[in-house]
Amino acid sequence: MILFIDGNQIDDQHSSINRSMIKVFELIYPNEEFRVLCEKSHYTKIVDNIADKHSINYASGLYIASPNSKLKKIFSEIYNFLFIICYIIFNNPRKVVFLSLYPTSHYLYRRISNFLKPEIYVVCHGELRFIRNNTNSLLTPCGWMIKAFSFSTNKIKSKWSYIYLGEQIEIPLFMQNENIVKINLPTEFKAIPPKQKLINKTCITLATIGVSSESKMTHLFFEMAMKLKSNKKIRFIATGAVDHTIMKYKNSNVDADYSGQFLPSNEVEKRLNSADLAVFFYNDAYADVASGAVLEAIRYEIPVLALNNKYFQFLKKKNVKFFKCFENIDEMEEFILSDGYYDINCDFSSAKKLYSIEAAAKILNASIHNFHSEN
């Protein structure tokens, strides 16, 4: 039995990522029993688009505290830690896959892993940047804790493996001796409605994808909308939730939901289908966390305009063509106003192949065999 655990997500949060990761393991272990230990509504979202729902069983629910309460968050981490350890001991899974893992909990699991039998896999994504740089107020002490203590004994290492969701992600120095495999974030790509060619449109829609926030530099999108408000050939739309940090940039030129709540999936889909171009303003730090928003652009076949950074340089090396990069915002605006987007060369098939579930399963399967042959 393989046990998948996520004690951080609720409802639809990262459900597509977790669903895709489970499907990767399904390709590697087609005859294995799968169980998922997570918050109940999150499990429902995970299995929502899986044809054979009986192959993935709901193990039990975890308590997920509101991120606005640090005290409740600490309580939920302690409760879930004890609950998960007991579940592993009494159910004896062959493998445990942490689909996400809070840094302090990660440290505690490492400390007691000598007493646990299963092989353990941890899926790593954007938290690596926060831990390495100590840039997040909640994760700063966690980053110090993980880096301050050596936990790479051979006995522990043989049990633990880390799955980085991005070939471009740099391995932190404190994890150089770990079992690490890099895969590009596995994604399900479905057929989309045919789109009208840009050259046939009298007005184009520029979109920002994902949550709009200052940390993601999305305020520059709202500023661009104000600057170009007199141009009636351009429409601006935010396809996801708008963070409170954006409220001071709020303006009528951006079609956005300013409630601060996550939009229903059908509304997000409607907005993405209406987008002609996606705009990204991330800096080089995005190389550690890029995936979700860009993959939505790939999934809905939306050409991308972006400020140049390491992530898009990585895609360029992979010969993936669906985007155009600029050195600054002025250069991007000039390109938009000159109708240069008509000439963007897009080949979404190569991008979809790079991020396919099959490609990820092939790499992960080979790495799993290598880890255990070495140990």
From TrEMBL:
* Gene3D superfamilies, per the entry: Glycogen Phosphorylase B (3.40.50.2000)
- What is this protein's record name? Glycosyl transferase family 1 domain-containing protein
